[in-house]
């Protein structure tokens, strides 16, 4: 799980675009707080469901406002969302998230923009997809 809260830069300008960006950061942090709390709380499924909705809302807001390429935000959101779906036994949604995560990481590496990012935690979550045995085609 990506456990780092997103920090609002001190030098950010005040504008509508900036307030939408800050809102996205706050939504991510709320989702993360719900996900972390779920690990020790009796209402685990409710908290995880709420975290999933928050991650999805923040992700959609970021895409709608086109803040530019914030790849770490995308990777962290999709990774954590995949883990939540896995915990909630929603295997199709989890698989979709991890496929998106793997695709995003491969794109970064292909474009030569993967340096500077720590992929270890993300790779652990998608490694099961990479190493899944495939059946051979019929002869």
Report on this structure.
By secondary structure, the chain is mainly alpha-helical. It is built from five helices and no strands. The N and C termini lie far apart (42 Å). The model is unreliable at 133-139 (pLDDT under 50).
Describe this structure in a few short sentences:
This protein is mainly α and 139 residues long. Helices cover 67% and strands 0% of the residues.
What key attributes describe this structure?
single chain; 139 residues; mainly alpha; 5 helices; 0% strand; globular
What secondary-structure arrangement, pairings included, does this model have?
Layout (H helix, E strand, L loop, with lengths): L15 H23 L5 H22 L5 H17 L3 H20 L9 H11 L9
Helix pairs in contact: 1-2, 2-3, 3-4, 4-5
Q: Would you report the number of β strands?
A: 0
Question: Based on helices, strands and strand pairing, what is the structural class?
Answer: mainly alpha
The separation of the N and C termini measures 42 Å
Main sheet?
none
Radius of gyration: 16 Å
Helices, by number, come to 5
**Net shape:** globular
Proportion of residues in β-strands: under 5%
Uncertain runs with pLDDT below 50, 5 residues or more?
133-139
| Sequence of secondary-structure elements | HHHHH
Mean pLDDT: 80
- Portion in helices: 55-70%
